[in-house]
Amino acid sequence: MRVRGLHYSVSQRPIFAGVDLDIERGSVTAIMGPSGTGKTTLLRLITGQLMADRGLVEVEGQDVAGLQRGGIYQMRRRMGMLFQNGALLTDLDVYENVAFPLREHTRLPERLLRHVVLAKLQAVGLRGACRLMPAELSGGMARRVAIARAIVMDPQLLIYDEPFVGLDPISLGVVLRLIRLLNDTLGLTSIVVSHDVHDLSEVADFSYLLSGGLVIAAGPPSALATDTREEVRQFMHGLPDGPVPFHYPAPDYLEQLRQLS
Amino acid sequence: MLASLTSELLQSLRIALQAIGAYTLFFVRLLKEVPRALLRFSLVVDQVHNSGALSLVIIMLSGLFVGMVLGLQGFDLLERFGSEESLGSAAALGLLKELGPVVTALLFAGRAGTALASELGLMRATDQLAAMEMMAVDPVRRVVMPRFLGGVLSMPLLAAIFSMIGIFGAQLVGVQLMGVDAGQFWSQMRSAVEFGDVMEGVVKSCVFGVACSLIAVYEGYHSVPTAEGVGRATTRTVVISSVIVLLLDYMLTAVML
């Protein structure tokens, strides 16, 4: 998958101003950046939910911008996506959530469908929870069910949007392990969008750091951790002030206090 | 002053025309999906249950009370002209042609319409619709269409039940309480109510069913994915549905009289 010269703006506000990146087949690639840099927007552009103003987004040699609705749906059948909150269908139980893509896209006999669904739930350790409703699941369990649903059609590309948000350390460890394990055992290509630097460095083969609408650093997570450039250092080490200022732009405080008095 | 007023009026007109255009396009998109939706009729049946069966209690209770009020008011009015035996035909015609379809539609907008809009709005806010898109499943086909058809099919059934219970309520008050002769009540009704009167009610309830269901699914599907956005979509569903139902009622009555 490759992106070249990607430009995208919302209401005249530029989000991306020439992003270039490559995703190697079979790798786990991390896309990092401070909040509001457009990481999720980038995923939406890759998956054809949004269209770029300019530039190329190419998935398996296909230009996403050149695809019609049917073509985009065909492309998405080879993708799985994990949303921030899992996005499970709340009126279906765990089993039916995982079975949902199979029921929509295939005519599998019920016995075979059951076999596939249970195998995927077993892979994420939730075969025993198959009759629970989404409201009965913890955040970590919901995320794991969503992973099972994302891999049920045996995709080639798996995309994770902020998969670690709000997870306790055990659930986080489980999700981290699953990302690596599924990528390697199923031969997937994975893209993980997050701002959790330390968690990502455990699983990612390669990482991109986005800021100000551009890729400001690229390389293995260990290389980014030792990068000395100020903007990269601020993000990787979580420094409160730097190129991304602590204070939101405001008029001079002393002047404002004088006016108030 | 006049210039700014004119520009505001033009702006409002532009917004209204845009909304009508968007509604029309959405409706056309839904119509295109009808054959495919009928092939998966079990999804529609589920929604007939959600929109129709779950609205039954409120419809039946309201029908009973409206019928009882009609019985009381009708008796009071007809007694002045010494024709209280016409109560049966007056109540039946009022319910079948007017009150049944209109009140059912207003209740449907308040009960099932808001449920549809908020459900779809919450599905958008919690990324369930986006997740379907990512699974290469068209949410309009899989989620919106069955709900729309469920509402369309429910409305005439609910209106029929409303009118039936309403007539029973009018009979309860007129015959049991006020002493109108039961034979006169039913025979006057049978001779006065024609097939065309029943069809007028059926046509109205079908049109109201399409309008209320379309407004509910449109507002829910296009709601802003926030708590405030879902709330606003729900409110808009009730307000727009109520006004449109009354407007359509006038137009249909004028055409069918």
Molecular structure report:
The complex is a heterodimer of chains A (261) and B (257). Chain A is an alpha/beta fold and 261 residues long. Chain A is built from ten helices and ten strands. Chain A has a six-stranded mixed beta sheet, with helices on both faces. The longest helix of chain A has 17 residues, at 169-185. Chain A starts with a strand and ends with a helix. The model of chain A has no long low-confidence stretch (mean pLDDT 88). Helix content of chain B is 88%, strand content 0%. Chain B has nine helices and no strands. Chain B has helices at residues 2-39, 41-51, 56-80, 87-125, 128-134, 139-177, 182-192, 195-221, 227-256. Chain B is globular, with a radius of gyration of 21 Å. The relative contact order of chain B is 0.16. Chain A binds chain B through residues 47, 49, 73-74, 76-77, 79-81, 83-85, 87-90, 100-101, 104-105, 149, 153, and chain B through 123, 126-128, 130-138, 142.
Helix-strand layout with pairing:
The complex is a heterodimer of chains A (261) and B (257).
Chain A: E1 2-10, E2 13-22, E3 28-32, H1 39-46, E4 54-59, E5 62-63, H2 69-76, E6 79-82, H3 94-105, H4 110-123, H5 139-151, E7 157-161, H6 169-185, E8 189-193, H7 197-203, E9 206-211, E10 214-219, H8 221-225, H9 230-236, H10 253-260
Parallel strand pairs in A: 3-8, 3-9, 6-7, 7-8
Antiparallel strand pairs in A: 1-2, 1-4, 4-5, 9-10
Helix pairs in contact in A: 3-4, 3-5, 4-5, 5-6, 6-7
Chain B: H1 2-39, H2 41-51, H3 56-80, H4 87-125, H5 128-134, H6 139-177, H7 182-192, H8 195-221, H9 227-256
Helix pairs in contact in B: 1-6, 2-6, 3-4, 3-6, 4-6, 4-7, 4-8, 4-9, 6-8, 8-9
